[in-house]
Amino acid sequence: MANRIVIPLPLMTLNEYTNEQRKNRFSGASAKKKQTAICEFYVKQAMKDGVTFDIPTRLKFNWYTLDKRQDPDNIAFQKKFVLDGMIKAKFLENDGWKQILGFSDYFDVDKENPRVEIEVE
C-alpha cells in the first residue's frame, strides 16, 4: 500500500463555493462543512490503512479530473477542504506553518477514476 491519501472527485470548486457564499453565509458554511466531512471520511480510511506523514511536511497533490473544463487554480482550491478534513480526522494537528512547509499541485485527466492523491513530496 502506498503512503498516500486518495479522495474521489469532484469536490466543490472555487466557483461553486463562491456561488454558495453569495446565496447567504449559512449556505456557504453548510457547503464547506459537507465537503470537509467527505474529505475527513477518506482521510480516516487512509489512517486505518496505516497511512502516516512525517510532520512538518511538504505535500504533493495529484489532481485527476474528468476533463479539462475547470482551471487548475479552481481545482486546487479544493485542498482547503482536504486539509480541514485532515484536521477533523486528527491526521494533522493544524495546517499552519509548523505543520505544512509547502504544496505542489499536478493535474491530469482520468475519466474513469477522478480523484486527488495526497502524498509527501
From TrEMBL:
Q: Which GO terms describe its molecular function?
A: magnesium ion binding
Give a GO biological-process term: DNA repair
InterPro entries membership:
RusA-like_sf
Domain of life of the source: Bacteria
Q: What is this protein called?
A: Endodeoxyribonuclease RusA family protein
- Organism for this UniProt entry: Carnobacterium maltaromaticum LMA28
